[in-house]
Amino acid sequence: MSTRCHIKVIKDNRTCYVYHHTDGYPEGVGKELRGYLRKWCGSKEEFTSEDFCTYLENTNPSYEFENIGIHGDEEYLYTVDFDKGDYLCDKIGGGNCFSEGLPVKSREELIFNGGTGKNGHHMDTRGPGQELESLTVGMDLQQARYPLGNQSFEKIISDGKYYVDKTALIYRMTHTYNYVFLSRPRRFGKSLLCSTLASYFRGEKEMFKGLAMERLEKDWKRYPVIYLSLASVKETNKKEIDEIISNRLKSIEKEFGFRRESNGHGERLYNLIVNCYEKYGERVVVILDEYDAPLLNVLHEPERLKEVRQTMRTLFSPLKDCDKYLKFLFITGITKFSQLSIFSELNNLTLISMDDEYSTLCGFTQQELETVFKDGINELAKKKGMTWEQTLDELRHTYDGYHFSSEGPGVYNPYSIVNALAKKKTDNFWFATGTPSFLVHMLKRFNTDISCVDGSEAMASSFDAPTENMHSILPLFYQSGYLTIKGYNERARLYTLGFPNKEVKNGLMENLYLYYVTSDTDHRDTNIWRISEGFLNHDLDQVFQTLQAFLEGIPYQDSHFDENHWTQMLYVVFSLLGIYTESQVRTAKGRIDIVVKTADDIYVMEVKLDHPVKEALEQIDAKSYLIPYSIDGRRLTKIGMTFSTTERNVTEWEVC
């Protein structure tokens, strides 16, 4: 015998209100209704109660649903807040009621009077017929829509969070290739992409309602999906890595109801694939997320790298023998280790990392930013007292500029954009999550001149070289997100690389400050501010007197005595000023050590070590360093400075 549920749904400003009562009211019906409501109307702007009833009847035929009006004291009101993820359950006329999700901060925020129900949940003591408009929740509903720290496609969609639709590209990719490798920087949406792929191949059609995939896919087949993520593997000890991988495989075996048939990682993965194929009668989808996480932590240690690489090769080796069992294989990571060393000659793997067609698969395009996040941009503009155009300009300079192919459009850092709009401020969010330690180690290994990185050039063949065999740090800098493609000479097959945006440059300089300048950061910000003010006010004595006092406090062991290091140190310090700084600027006759630009001034600097300052000024004149800036319109100033190896400081400067 079916249970009759009477439904009335009202949607007001991203909150759904469900009135219902049942004949016989079986336990759990209310919770079921809330679950159905969340899935159904989380992404809808408009709907009717009839729509919801039809959906319920098609979804759960064990209940009969009828669209009704309010039934007075017998009516139950469920409010489902899709922006915050709260369920509030209030019984009209009083009484206790179960609720789940995040708690409301106070009763007053609901504009109610009354006490608290059992377990600390809220209880409504209104009389029947009180206006629905009085039900308001004291929380930032706009902020709650941002998927902060959430990389699950199913949860983002079910909770009504913002989702930038990449499913058209996913459809194209999955219908073009069978084995795909994609590298992207950390926190760039790789895990969300993997989760979306998993939902798609599991045939979860309802999750794609309103997305491009719903229109494109006609045959929603369900495939067994083996999803293995190594993203959180930070250990460098082989034994610990083996244990973590073993536990991950155990979890997948449990998910499919299989028993462990062997101890070797590779054999277990092979058995998983074959058993899934035999159990479900469909070819298997394998998704490997952040496959290189264990390798990156030992990248600078050749012996450990060799050991961990062998572990990874053992794990992935069966993939080459599973072709007849595999529907689709997707591998992501930051870097590209050789197929021979990791995937045991999986030579049918298609690399799409630098393809124009898939350059926007991760990250937000300008159009996506302005359409999906329109409300958030308006809120940020209001908070900052800026116009729409000014706010877009700030977001563009701070978070845009990533190019993952020679012809593809630029994209924004998704992690930084979501945080900036949710928190209504611009900051170095991506760098706040930490600079990978392997990068600093590799800078030391390659003896990298950080002042030459911005504007550097690299042959296309450099990007094809496996990470473990690279002869330059530039491809690793690019793959890690610290450099991006600024230009490409097709005839010479030569890429020009540079910092993508202000967040990357400033964040990188703050992290490299400890390496190029000093580990003592107590007075850094004060000194940086005084130096910046000196440049802005054209007070060069303040600049160099502050710099002198600052360098005097650097411990002896932190000091270096070659001219190149002093130039790099100045570049790092000046890059933290918040004003435009370049180093090793190429001209027709040489390279300028440092150029600093403000709104009114351009400062051209030459550095000498244990040589008179006049030689620095003479070089500026002899090599015509000012000529490229002569038609700019800003005041030109040339600066010569001398560093002393005995004083370990700048001892002389001259401005003219």
Number of strands: 18
Euclidean distance between termini CA atoms? 95 Å
Number of contiguous helices: 25
Q: Flag low-confidence runs.
A: 1-7, 10-17, 19-26, 65-139
Helix and strand composition category: alpha/beta
What's the shape? globular
- The helicity comes to 25-40%
Placed side by side, the strands forming the largest sheet appear as 3-1-2-4-5
How is the biggest beta sheet arranged? 5 strands, mixed
What fraction of residues sit in β-strands? 15-25%
Q: For the residues shown, what is the average pLDDT?
A: 78
Q: Which value, in Å, is the CA radius of gyration?
A: 30 Å
List the SSEs and their pairings.
Blueprint: E1 3-12, E2 15-22, H1 29-41, H2 49-59, E3 63-67, E4 76-81, E5 86-91, H3 141-144, H4 153-158, H5 167-174, E6 179-183, H6 190-201, H7 212-216, E7 225-229, H8 238-256, H9 265-280, E8 284-289, H10 293-296, H11 302-316, E9 326-333, H12 339-342, E10 350-351, H13 366-372, H14 374-384, H15 388-399, H16 414-423, H17 429-432, H18 437-445, E11 457-459, H19 460-464, H20 474-479, E12 484-489, E13 494-498, H21 502-516, H22 524-536, H23 540-552, H24 563-575, E14 580-586, E15 591-597, E16 601-609, H25 613-622, E17 635-644, E18 649-655
Parallel strand pairs: 1-3, 6-9, 6-10, 7-8, 8-9, 16-17
Antiparallel strand pairs: 1-2, 2-4, 4-5, 11-13, 12-13, 14-15, 15-16, 17-18
